[in-house]
UniProtKB/TrEMBL annotation:
Residues 33-214 form the SIS domain. The lineage of its organism: Bacteria, Bacillati, Actinomycetota, Actinomycetes, Kitasatosporales. Pfam families: SIS_2. PROSITE patterns: SIS. It comes from the Bacteria. PANTHER family: PHOSPHOHEPTOSE ISOMERASE, SEDOHEPTULOSE 7-PHOSPHATE ISOMERASE / DNAA INITIATOR-ASSOCIATING FACTOR FOR REPLICATION INITIATION. InterPro entries: RpiR-like_SIS, SIS_dom, SIS_dom_sf, SIS_GmhA/DiaA_subfam. Gene3D superfamilies: Glucose-6-phosphate isomerase like protein, domain 1. This is SIS domain-containing protein. Transmembrane segments: none annotated.
Length: 249
């Protein structure tokens, strides 16, 4: 029977493997981000379903970079004028057409870099967004499970996966289906992709900040809004990117 200690042991094995095998990929991803920021670009982060948590890890949090923007399917309603019931469709992430509207609403600049997360890497919206990103000349960092995506059939008309378009692939190490602990009756419990993706995001964050400092650039980093002076510090930095980064719901 699954229990917490079994999960901790299984998750630790995967975390250890991910963080020790990604030195080169993390450095490459950090280099793309540092180059974008030095060129007045911002980081555009996108994920659907539970992979939206990776975009939240990248954009708009304490200790993270200020020039970051989270793209989410709810943007269709919040910024695009779509009716609220649009979001009632649980299969929306499979629709490639959605990516075009989301890209349009984000209005990225040519120098922006994209981070796209999808554990499976096969859904239409994710793959279409990756294709759009490369068609427009942006650098692309993908966070995905290479085990899962290699065993799953792409849902995009091209037959391609997120990883096929990426300049850098960060493998979150999750098994096929994401969950770690098998059940006696079939299936598994306790997903791991969110945990490892957060590790990868913060490893890239640390290296990107290091590269900026080495280049003589003061990193534009958020303070917590819940410490004295945090709001004031953050507003000064956010004003530099007015109209390019969204900090709504």
């Amino acid at each position: 029977m699954p229990d917490s200690q079994e999960f901790l042991a299984a998750a630790k094995d995967i975390v250890d493997r991910v963080v020790t095998t990604h030195t080169d990929a993390v450095l490459a991803a950090a280099g793309l981000i540092a180059t974008a920021l030095k060129g007045d670009g911002v980081v555009q982060a996108f994920g659907t379903g539970h992979s939206e948590s990776l975009a939240t890890e990248v954009a708009g949090r304490a200790g993270g970079l200020v020039p970051t923007n989270k793209i989410a399917i709810r943007d269709l309603v919040l910024y695009g004028g779509a009716p609220a019931d649009t979001l009632n469709d649980p299969l929306l992430e499979r629709d490639p057409a959605i990516a075009h509207r989301l890209y349009e609403l984000a209005a990225p600049h040519p120098e922006d870099v994209f981070v796209i997360a999808s554990n499976s890497g096969i859904n239409g919206c994710i793959v279409e967004m990756a294709q759009l990103v490369k068609e427009h000349g942006h650098a692309l960092i993908a966070v995905t499970s290479l085990e899962h995506t290699s065993r799953a059939t792409p849902r995009h008309p091209s037959g391609k996966r997120l990883s096929d378009f990426a300049d850098v692939v960060l493998d979150n190490g999750a098994p096929f289906g994401d969950a770690l602990l098998p059940l006696p009756s079939g299936g598994s419990v306790c997903a791991v992709s969110t945990i490892t993706a957060a590790y990868l995001a913060q490893m890239v964050n640390a290296e990107a900040v290091r590269l900026l400092i080495e280049a003589g650039v003061t990193p534009p980093v958020y303070l917590s809004a819940n410490v004295p002076g945090g709001d004031e510090h953050n507003k000064v930095l956010e004003d530099r990117y007015a109209g390019r980064i969204r900090r709504g719901a």
